């Protein structure tokens, strides 16, 4: 898997519960800061409608017509203000976060934890204070890396005529920044032409732009089931993607499904009790979960919605299905829709060919649309849900 989503935020906001609900991995969850010391890594899934629903036969690789495409998710140590200066577990947090292509910022929408992650009364802390500090910490962390030995590097740039985007990306390579992203940020910021004259403010502005490009972020408004109405309203008015969630409720749903108590797929709008051994107290608890799912309207308790929106909206990816038989939508072993690839919007059949295998990409001829049977050129723009046969001279 080449796709990694990071779970970030202050301690005790529910990141580890979110992670466990998304992966059903065995991780420690507790009501105190810094439960997570070392990053938890696991596999979760993006939910998409499987193309086999357009045919009479199911492919065997989906659940009731829903395809779950695996991605990596990482739950990093909790972040506190001034983490970029080494407070809390800041350096560990920031070093681990460089792996993520997008960030789900888990905040405590209930206001039941202070800025450091210590428990307080519900509604005592304003969750809006938690929204901005994460981005600032990441940008300041990048700024510190960029400023390191900058005087010496800037003189070298001037003397040797090194491209500015190459110099910036080389300096920020450890933060996961490539040359294309550095170029995009430099163009957006309109930095002073003479790099030896860049101020601290110039560098901070550049790194904030780089952060936005390399680490797009959304909000998981967690503990929404106990959040005061005014908190919910304030979060909904933010100019950023916000999804209401209850990681604890989602964990209960997925655990109940795993144990054969209910029929539920991650992201479903409802569930059915299938066990005849459910007592009255359990029925009451499950009824409360049903009511919350209906109220949220996101499918489940919001966890799957967060993952899907991070992948499809923040990162602008699509799901494409390569096949070898465009008629049967199968591979050479007659397996229907065996693979599902996440690709950037705007990707072409030639891009897909390289994802399948380097030799196939190098010897690409054309592609065939499995749905229309039309021939596709190498510059054709693929769409979400496309079924594609690649034709090449590769053996």
Automatic annotation (TrEMBL):
GO cellular component: cytoplasm
Signal peptide: none
Protein origin, superkingdom: Archaea
Record Pfam families: MMR_HSR1, TGS, YGR210-like_G4
Stored Gene3D superfamilies: 1.10.8.470, 3.10.20.30, P-loop containing nucleotide triphosphate hydrolases
Molecular-function GO term, any one: GTP binding
Record-linked InterPro entries: Beta-grasp_dom_sf (IPR012675), G_OBG (IPR031167), GTP-bd (IPR006073), P-loop_NTPase (IPR027417), TGS (IPR004095), TGS-like (IPR012676), YGR210-like_G4 (IPR013646)
Keyword terms: GTP-binding, Nucleotide-binding
Residue stretches making up the OBG-type G domain: 3-265
Family membership noted in the UniProt record: Belongs to the RelA/SpoT family.
Name of the protein this chain belongs to: Redox-regulated ATPase YchF
Organism: Methanococcoides seepicolus
